[in-house]
Task: inverse folding
C-alpha cells in the first residue's frame, strides 16, 4: 500500500488522476501472484535468477522514481531505502541476479 500511495502522489504531480492510474495498478496486481511464487522458489533454492530483470535494471528504475519524486517535492524515503538495498546487492557483486537477492542481503548485518 505504501508503494501505491507513493505512485498516486507521483501520478498526481504528473497531472494523472488516481482514477486514471487505478487500471494500471490493477494490471500490476494481477501479475503479482506468479511473481510471488517464482520469487519464493528462487529464495528457497538460492538461485536468484536475474534473467529478464537483473537488479541493475531494477536499480535504474528505482533511481528514476526517486529522482522524479524528489523533483516534485514528494518524500521518497521508502524508495531511497529500496534503492540503497539494491545498490548494496550490486556492490556485493550480484548485479546480474534477480531482485529476490535482496532477501539474502536483508538477512546480513
Result:
Amino acid at each position: 500500500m505504501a508503494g501505491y500511495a507513493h505512485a498516486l502522489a507521483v501520478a498526481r504531480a504528473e497531472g494523472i488522476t488516481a482514477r486514471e492510474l487505478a487500471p494500471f495498478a490493477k494490471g500490476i496486481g494481477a501479475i503479482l501472484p506468479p511473481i510471488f511464487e517464482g520469487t519464493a522458489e528462487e529464495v528457497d533454492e538460492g538461485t536468484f535468477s536475474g534473467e529478464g530483470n537483473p537488479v541493475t535494471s531494477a536499480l535504474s528504475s528505482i533511481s528514476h522514481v526517486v529522482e522524479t519524486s524528489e523533483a516534485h517535492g514528494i518524500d521518497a524515503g521508502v524508495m531511497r531505502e529500496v534503492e540503497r538495498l539494491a545498490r548494496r546487492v550490486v556492490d556485493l557483486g550480484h548485479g546480474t541476479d534477480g531482485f529476490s537477492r535482496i532477501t539474502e542481503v536483508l538477512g546480513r548485518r
Notes: The two ends are 27 Å apart (CA to CA). The mean pLDDT is 95. The CA atoms of residues 39 and 97 lie 12 Å apart. Helices lie at 2-13, 18-45, 55-71, 77-91, 102-106.
